[in-house]
Amino acid sequence: MRNQNHESKQRKSERILFISPIGCGPPHSGNRARMRTLLQELRSLGYEIHFAWAQIPDHEAWARLSHEARQETSQYVDQWVYDFLWPSQQDARFAMLAGRIRHQIVRRTRRGKERTSKGIHRLDQWFHPGWIREAQELQRRYRYSKVIVAYVFCSSFFKAFPASTLKVLDCHDAFTCRNDVVSNSEENNWWYALYRADEQRALMRADRILGIQEHESEFFRTLTNGKRPVFSVGHFTEVKPLEFDMKSCHVFGFIGSRSPWNADGLHWFLDEVWPLVKESHSSSSLLIAGGVRDSIGNPPFDCLTLGEVDTVTDFYSRILFAINPVHFGTGMKIKTVESLAHGRAVVATPSGFSGLEAYEARGLELATTAKEFAAAILIMLRDPELAMKRGRMAAETASDLNDRSREMLARALSMPD
Question: What distances in angstroms separate CA 30 from CA 79, 288, 331, one per listed residue?
Fold first, then answer.
């Protein structure tokens, strides 16, 4: 953790409330890894962090936060102050059903892609009205000067706090017709999405807005007509470039959760790119780690697997460079940033590259087709010294990303004059 400066020391007694539907979690799960690093940064700025969890009524996520996630999150906060819970699963089911009925009525008034967009919710469908009173009680007890709320579907929490409390929305993602962007599947495997007007309403509830990368920050500025300051705060990483093991100079890798877009990207790579690589470099090996490994059944020849890892260092120490073959999704691809921070160059699709375009050729290699992807991989497999040089550049890029995000976070949390 960085040494606290004078301003941080002065701020040490200032309490900040962080309300989130997720906690910290596995290192290969992007949004939970970002939650951990964001909490660490808030601590390094000198805040006393109070944390409250908000239960998602979705039937797949009904269970309370796991014991492991609760323990992990507790390490990075000063006090876990509250759990915002739905009174019963029956109440949650009724609210979800009512929301779906209202949505079907509203959908008929929509035009263009909003009329057919998949997985649309109404803005406050996952928010229980009783939580306003409960949050007001927390404010009376602790007098928070700042409150950060994660995700637009929790933005109604801001109604509980007075004008004197700075309200910061950590968006994580852009949710306007989100499922049309993150997946091309006709199956019901998408997540929460919004109409444009509802996302605009959520953003306007905040005083400050955090976007995870500049493309999405610019979208939020457009939605709010410039009426709310928007700051690009990416994924903070501990930059610890690892030594290279020459015995692994023929190994590159992919790590990811079991999300459908990770699985889609891996299947595309194995079907379209891997045969091209093996044809020209028969001794190469692909290392697959994280939950995404479960999506492929028996791995193809010369594919190694780690499955779930306790620390991503176990993965990056075994590879010469990394790949990110995803074709769908929004936000900054956290696995790409983490690869850079470990001193590993990355070959990525445009989606895996999203938000990092300014850093092309600085440890990041863009590939738009299977042939381009294979060619970029083969260049580094044939010249391990070049791959290592690009890895060192990757670590410098990660440091630059940290510095920019750190500056943006400090500015977002500064109180108006």
Answer: 24, 16, 10
CB 318 within 8 A of CB 248: yes
Q: For residue 321, tell me if it sits in a domain.
A: yes
Rounded to an integer, what distance in angstroms lies between the CA atom of residue 292 and that of residue 229? 37
User: Could you tell me if 212 and 234 are in contact, meaning their C-beta atoms sit under 8 angstroms apart?
Assistant: yes
Q: Residue 189 maps to which CATH number?
A: 3.40.50.11930
In angstroms, rounded to a whole number, what is the distance separating the alpha carbons of residues 253 and 303? 9
Residue 184 counted as domain residue: yes
User: Which residue ranges in the chain fall short of pLDDT 70?
Assistant: 1-13, 26-30, 58-63, 96, 99-100, 102-118, 179-190, 307, 329-332, 415-417
What are the DSSP calls for 68-111, one per residue?
HHHHHHHTT-SEEEEEE--S-HHHHHHHHHHHHHHHHHHHTT--
Instruction: Give the whole-angstrom CA distance, residue 226 versus residue 211.
Output: 14
The Cα–Cα gap between 74 and 403 comes to 26
Q: Under a CB-based contact definition with an 8 Å cutoff, are residues 236 and 405 in contact?
A: yes
Shared domain for 273 and 323, answered yes or no, is yes
Q: Is residue 147 part of a domain?
A: yes
- Give the tens place of pLDDT for each residue, 155-197: 999 999 999 999 999 998 888 877 666 555 445 455 788 888 9
Torsional sign, CA 144, 26, 271, 322: positive
Same-domain status, 126 and 271: no
Task: Mark whether 121 and 174 lie in a shared domain.
Answer: yes
Q: Which domain holds residue 168?
A: 6-232
250's CB contacts (< 8 A; 6+ apart) are 281, 283, 284, 285, 320, 381
The candidate with the shortest Cα–Cα distance to 401, out of 173, 215, 218, 234, is 234
- For helices 196-204 and 214-223, the axis angle rounded to 10 degrees is 90
329 conformational bin, left if phi > 0, alpha if psi -120 to 50, beta if neither: left
What amino acid occupies position 173? D
Q: How far is the C-alpha of 370 from the C-alpha of 373, rounded, in Å?
A: 5
Same domain, 382 and 250: yes
Beta strands in 325-412 (DSSP E): 346-348, 364-366
Strand, coil or helix: 194: strand
Asked whether the beta carbons of 258 and 405 are under 8 A apart, the reply is no
